[in-house]
Write a structure and sequence with these properties.
Number of helices: 12
Radius of gyration: 22 Å
Strand order of the largest sheet: 6-7-8-3-9-10-12-11
Helix content: 25-40%
Shape: globular
Strand content: 15-25%
Oligomer: single chain
Order of helices and strands: EEEHEEHEHHHEHEHEEHHHHEEH
Distance between the termini: 28 Å
């Protein structure tokens, strides 16, 4: 544990006090009507001529010590949500509260102290690490920036963090290029944990890794969450991974949440046509299931977020729309997230959610992330070598 310095009480697994008026049952992260718009510029004077609405009104909460999975196609706005939460990008509008404190009301000059409470693990473990710095320098940097501990205390802390993520503490003098991809991601995780955050945003942290290494990193996240009590905002496109690690799942389409439910509920009783299509095409490690399953491919590419469709944003690609008689309501009226009849914590944004449930009852949808024996995938085995 770090001692001395300006803040002697920070160490691995030490939780900071909550804001006044909050309790252990209060949500750690509350996001309301979040909008992340990027300007479209044209002409020699680069005047703004429009907006790319990457995220266009998103609401969710994340409890302490829980994992919320964000899933959807590439370009749906998942990464923009994660980067807005940690204010790597500035939201256009909305509210982001961590432990009751509105981050968007804080000027950038006052963000440094708050950043100790939320950190980020990036997608590419190599490009996110400075190739000129040793591993020890990479992990120690946040501690130096926040003036935590003496030099010897920081070095001991770096060794503790490396051992915490499954790497030898004696490797502090090596450069990132001397490690494998999985080991570099462990280094990135150690750096994110250096300041003992309450929240870690994981931006597709395993998509750049070999399949054999992905399970190890997922199990590492689960162990760290149990040991340290951190909350994870886990961004991914692999549904099997999300089912394994997430307590709740939010499905994103064109900057909107179209379905939000506990992980088991969403995978066993999907209610939005988009969610059903994603599940129907997800790979399943069972030959018999793969041969007999029914797939629902989505036609065309997602519309441009600079010019989203009117009404339901998914109606231009909805595979169920013709079965419902091509309802005009889908093209003119935007659906809002509403509670489903099956559970109070299951929400879906679809005008015909009841019909979707009836329609998919006869489909042979696979159980994503579960083998034929009923066990979840993603068991840890061995360690990734250098």
């Amino acid at each position: 544990m770090l001692g001395g310095g300006r803040d002697p009480g920070i160490g691995v697994g030490v939780r900071r006090a909550m804001s006044p008026g909050l309790t252990e049952r209060s949500p750690l992260l509350e996001v309301r009507d979040l909008k992340v718009w990027y300007p479209v510029r044209a002409g020699i004077f680069r005047r703004r001529v429009g907006w790319v609405r990457a995220v266009d009104g998103v609401d969710f909460t994340l409890e302490r010590g829980q994992t919320l999975g964000l899933v959807g196609e590439s370009g749906c706005g998942k990464t923009s949500i994660g980067r807005a939460v940690v204010r790597v990008v500035e939201p256009h509008d909305g509210s982001i509260r961590i432990s009751g404190e509105d981050l968007l009301a804080i000027k950038r000059s006052g963000l440094r102290r708050r950043r100790r409470r939320f950190q980020m693990v990036f997608q590419d473990p190599f490009s996110s690490l400075d190739p000129r710095q040793t591993v020890g320098q990479v992990i120690e940097e946040p501690l130096r920036i926040h003036s935590l501990g003496t030099r010897s205390e920081r070095r001991r802390r770096v060794e503790q963090l490396l051992e915490l993520v499954g790497l030898p503490g004696a490797t502090t003098g090596r450069l990132p290029r001397e490690f494998s991809g999985g080991q570099r991601q462990r280094i990135g995780i150690a750096r994110a944990l250096a300041l003992d955050p309450d929240l870690v945003v994981c931006d597709e942290p395993i998509s750049a890794l070999d399949v054999s290494i992905q399970a190890q990193i997922i199990n590492l996240f689960e162990r760290l969450q149990t040991q340290l009590g951190i909350a994870l905002l886990f961004i991914a496109h692999d549904l099997a991974v999300v089912r394994h690690i997430a307590h709740d799942v939010a499905v994103i389409y064109l900057g909107k949440i179209v379905e939000h439910a506990p992980s088991r509920t969403l995978f066993e009783r999907p209610t939005h046509p988009y969610t059903v299509a994603l599940l129907s095409t997800a790979p399943v490690p069972d030959v018999d299931v793969e041969r007999s399953r029914e797939r629902i491919p989505l036609s065309g590419d997602p519309p441009s977020p600079a010019d989203p469709p009117s009404g339901c944003r998914f109606h231009t690609r909805c595979w169920l729309r013709s079965d419902l008689g091509n309802p005009e309501e889908c093209a003119t009226t935007e659906p809002v997230l509403q509670t489903c009849e099956d559970a109070e914590d299951h929400q879906v944004a679809c005008h015909f959610a009841a019909q979707v449930s009836e329609r998919i009852a006869g489909l042979n949808l696979p159980t994503v992330g579960v083998s034929s024996t009923g066990d979840q995938s993603g068991r840890e085995s061995g360690s990734d070598g250098a």
